[in-house]
Structures are given as structure tokens and as C-alpha cells.
Design brief:
The protein is built from four helices and no strands.
């Protein structure tokens, strides 16, 4: 994930009052995993799917490997 995409997702999370720790708790993963994903240092289709399900705009994922992710 590139820096621009990451910044958009982080900004959306702030507006929705979703912290990386809360997201990690909801998914049963570590906060470090969520933070690494937000920095583009790890891959997790599950995190992308969860954010889309929570309302994160699909447009934010355009041009990334997560572009075709479907919300569960």
C-alpha cells in the first residue's frame, strides 16, 4: 500500500474514531499487525475487508492489491 492510500485510510479511521488497537481487538490480531499493515509493511486482506465493511470508501483501495476486496 502506498503512502497516499495509507494516509487516507488513517484519516478515515480518525474521523470514525477507530484506533489501530480497537481494530486489532475486533479482528483478533495484534495492534502491531494493524500498524504494520497501515504502513504497508504487511499484507492482510482481512483488515481491508473489515475496514470496507465498516464503511471505509472502496475508492481508497483503488490501484492497490485490495481493490477487488469484497466486504464479508
Amino acid at each position: 500500500m502506498n503512502k497516499d492510500t495509507s494516509l487516507k485510510i488513517k484519516a478515515w479511521m480518525v474521523l470514525q474514531e477507530i484506533t489501530p488497537a480497537a481494530l486489532a481487538s475486533e479482528l483478533g490480531v495484534s495492534r502491531q499487525m494493524v500498524s504494520a499493515w497501515l504502513r504497508g509493511k504487511s499484507d492482510s486482506r482481512r483488515i481491508a475487508e473489515h475496514l470496507i465493511l465498516k464503511g471505509c470508501p472502496r475508492a481508497y483501495f483503488r490501484g492497490t492489491k485490495y481493490e477487488e476486496v469484497r466486504a464479508a
